[in-house]
Design brief:
Number of strands of chain A: 11
Number of helices of chain B: 0
Oligomer: heterodimer
Radius of gyration of chain A: 13 Å
Distance between the termini of chain A: 33 Å
Number of strands of chain B: 11
Distance between the termini of chain B: 38 Å
Number of helices of chain A: 0
Strand content of chain B: over 45%
Largest sheet of chain B: 6 strands, mixed
Structural class of chain A: mainly beta
Shape of chain A: globular
């Protein structure tokens, strides 16, 4: 009964393709996030959604777009994939705007662009 | 612009001894600090946190110390156990703001 689940776990695709990563949480949290863990292992926030509103949008390329059909889901769409997009992407959720133990992460999606 | 830094990529300790993981930050506006633990092929899981009004927080074998003047925090694990072997991420935030910043992580190996 996974609290935050991401699919797929692994994704290998060619440059130029468009792909999506799905995320679902069953914790009743009202805020969801996407983080990218780059080659240097830093976890960097990309987006967060609170009550269907984007509240953080780091300087990520506009090829990346979050889609939230409801507060339990935050999917990540990536257009025209580039080699530099290869990374591990983590979805997370929390209740409210405060940080702390309420951050629950998914197990990650390893994206490889060839 | 890495506002949270973990300068030791790895640490190896003997079972039963103390593990000390260090973290430095540059943004003086941070007022909430967290440690997350990550096993391979899993997402990070929350371990312990501390707010800037404290200088120590303890939870069982885990203690986090905060030195605001030095912009430094550390995680102590006593005694260390082989199951503690994982990557530990330091994170910092300003309260009521979801823009949490992470360090690059320190891989802890506890040898039996």
């Amino acid at each position: 009964d996974t609290a935050v689940s991401q699919t797929p776990k692994y994704l290998v695709t060619q440059m130029g393709n468009d792909k999506s990563i799905k995320c679902e949480q069953n914790l009743g949290h009202d805020t969801m996030y996407w983080y990218k863990q780059d080659s240097k292992k830093f976890l960097k926030i990309m987006f967060s959604y609170n009550n269907k509103e984007l509240i953080i949008n780091e300087t990520v390329p506009n090829r990346f777009s979050p889609k939230s059909p409801d507060k339990a889901h935050l999917n990540l769409h990536i257009n025209s994939l580039e080699l530099g997009d290869s990374a591990v992407y983590f979805c997370a959720s929390s209740q409210g705007r405060a940080p702390g133990p309420g951050y629950t992460f998914g197990s990650g999606t390893r994206l490889t662009v060839v | 612009d890495q506002q949270v830094k973990q300068n030791s990529p790895s640490l190896s300790v003997q079972e039963g001894r103390i593990s000390i993981l260090n973290c430095d930050y540059t943004n003086s506006m941070f007022d909430y600090f967290l440690w997350y633990k990550k096993y391979p092929a899993e997402g990070p899981t929350f371990l312990i946190s501390i707010s800037s009004i404290k200088d120590k927080n303890e939870d069982g074998r885990f203690t986090v110390f905060l030195n605001k003047s030095a912009k430094h925090l550390s995680l102590h694990i006593v005694p260390s156990q082989p199951g503690d072997s994982a990557v530990y991420f330091c994170a910092a935030n300003t309260y009521n703001n979801n823009d949490m910043r992470f360090g690059a992580g320190t891989r802890l190996t506890v040898k039996p």
